[in-house]
Amino acid sequence: MRAVAIGWSLLLVAGCRSASDPPRAGPAGPAFASKPAVTRDGGAVRIAFAATGETDVAVFVEDAKGHVLRHLAAGVLGRNPPAPLVAGSLKQSLVWDGKDDLGRPAEGGPFRVRVGLGLRPAFESLIGFRPEALGGVRGLATGPGGELYVFHCYGSAHPHDGTTVCTVLGRDGKYLKTILPYPANLPEAKLKGLKRVDLGNGIKVPFIYQFETRSMIPGLGDLPSQRPVVTRDGRLAFVGVQEGPQPFAQAGEARLTVVHTDGSVPEGGVLRAPIAPLTDSAASLALSPDEKTIYATGVRACTHQAVKPGSKGACGDCEHSGNTWEHTAPDRMVYRLGWGDAPAESFGRDLGLKEPVSVATDQAGKVYVADLADDRIAVFKPDGAPAGSIKVSRPQRVEVHRKTGAVYVLSGDKGLALVKLTADGREVARAELPLGGKGGFFPIRRPVMALDDSAEPAVLWVGGPLLRVEDRGESFGEPVRAVPDAADGGPGSIGPVMDLSLDRERGLLYVSHGWRYHTAAGTWEKLTAPGIPMWPGSSPSSANGTVGLDGNYYVCVGNYYATPESIRDRSSTMANPPGSKGCYLCRQGPDLKLRPFPASGEQEGRLRAPAMDFGCGQTADARGNVYVIWKKAPADPGDGARAHALYLYGPDGQLKKAKLVDAEFAHIRSVRVDRAGNIYLAVGLRPGRDQLPPGLAGALPEGPEDRDAVNGVNGYPLLYGSIVKFGPAGGVIRKGSGGLPCNYGYGVATEVKGAQWLFPGASTVASWKAPGNIMACYCELPGLDVDGFGRSFFCDAGRFRVGVIDTAGNRICWFGGYGNQDSAGPASAIPAPELAFCWPQAVAVDDAAAYVGDRLNRRIVRVKLGYAVEQSLAVP
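Below the sequence we write its predicted structure tokens.
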């Protein structure tokens, strides 16, 4: 046992170099002390070279077309290099036996050997990037120059965990910039008041205030529908909901939140006046003519009709988590507030409103309130006295032209109409809009509208999808979609990339189980297959796909939330095929035709999950053996909720070994295998008692209490896990197994037995549903990939970067840094960092490039995998 502990200690030291380590090869960078030489040695080929200092190396054998047919060796030179590199030496001599990666005699000569020192990832291109593309529109506001500020949500795996983005469009609908998440080039002085994470070496990145919604400003989260406002001096105000201590966006305190129109922080910080103590909705705002007073209405509050037993009645304790409108009621108040932190006060004494949902002001300061339940626009003087009423059916939003006094109303329920009225209520124009209905965003999320009266003609913006409508006097122009569909037949914007997998032999990149990208031709192909539902942009809770080393595409499909009844009557939203019992795995060839598992015994030759639960990752080796992470059935004694294990099946679908890697919890994800049969997993645990990985320890609190985070919850320990390598025999993750002591969640102890190494620092590799910890979903798979050398490429979303480690557990490099979508490479508006990510979610890799799913920037970044120095020589 002592020898095992010593071995683990050495491997952990080798695998845990921090990002602040000095360059291994010295200030001059990697260089050859002896240039590579290739000679014949009988029937074999010998490759010899030496480096000037400790660095990483990669040795390829290529055919006449430059295709890599043998990954001979790669890793960090030094005390613990992977075989066949020699430990303790910068001088290496390797032998190629003339065979390819599969052990077959190499074909396609003449051959060349390529040796590279010092992996240097570099920006190459963006794929599926369309910055003007929008998610679900949640708020619209216009600036004094006609700019449109669009709050929209992206990145959700299911309702209430989206991330709000603020995109700025011109008056003509053309993309201008993104201000939330805030730009990477803002100096620290302009971000004063926002918590930042110091990574050392002068690098700071945003702090994640609310980790399931990836909020970098407190209360932004999955923003409820609302009407923000913009001032003439460049302030943008909206209503943020300070979510409760659960990861999903939920009921909490509604507060005025203010940023500058460049994304920076105004003096006094972003959080201002409280508006409502507990709500699951935001408010419609309006400015007085002098812009010193803000009016707010449209708040809804929980009615506590379904409180959990034993709770204190807080909205977050309700069965619906404060997110279902059937369990909330409208606040009948209109509030008045300033720009400070003084609580909002009521406007007027008793306005007689039934369900106020929107507010606007005119040039004289009169206040117009859309009273949805009373079918009217109520008008008040600045002191709150009644000033009239305009009848209109079901007014959802109201706007008033500051110059002409025209009143614009978004009216209706199942269908919506834009109505123009005079101040005395006479209808001037009407346009039916292609919005509304229970099948879309409405009425769960209210429609939103903003008026641009900065020039003629006046423009009405309505969302979503975002429509632009011109006021032409006594009529409206035809509603035009501000962001039209892509013209090339592809997806245009690929959206929030949830998973990636690469067929390296054919150059086919599978994206979010909906599209396939041809990397050589640069063209898109829609995925289809009989019997397999396809949901573009779907989450792993519904489907996820992986290309195995055998070239087949393995798709895990199904709905954990489905019941046997919903499966029978097809009422489940995830439409499981008839006769299925939860989730299952299908196999498709590169032609997308189904390739059944004959021994599975299931309809259409599927592999069915042992329990009703979605799969958490799958792959196949070169022989077609299939590795799948399922919920165990039955559970073992002592298992936590929904404990998972890795199952191994033969190419025919026959179970070869259940619980190849057996865990006591549900925190193993994204399995990959190398040519030797080694197993790589993303696991939601860390070594020893450290709740944070190297580089974050000391920079963040290591427990749940953090006054800078939303409601005192620090989510970083729940985001961070490790990459773990097991041999072909697998292993066990269980307390009392006699393995390496580890922890998950907020310090829950466990042990890892049978692993060769563990590298902490991967995120999001969540451990959320841990005993006594925060309860949340962990549907999202971390995008781990392993290349032909066995090098692991993995995402660190919490630090906005990607890591690379060799097959012995040594860190090769980190690449990437924080940037919103205006950081789009060296030639973009914000050129640094060169490789910019905003929540890297997935990575797929071949010999030439790494493809990084940049989730919140809605794009794939193609990263060239070059070397500081390299040399190619012919094989004699």
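The mean pLDDT is 86.
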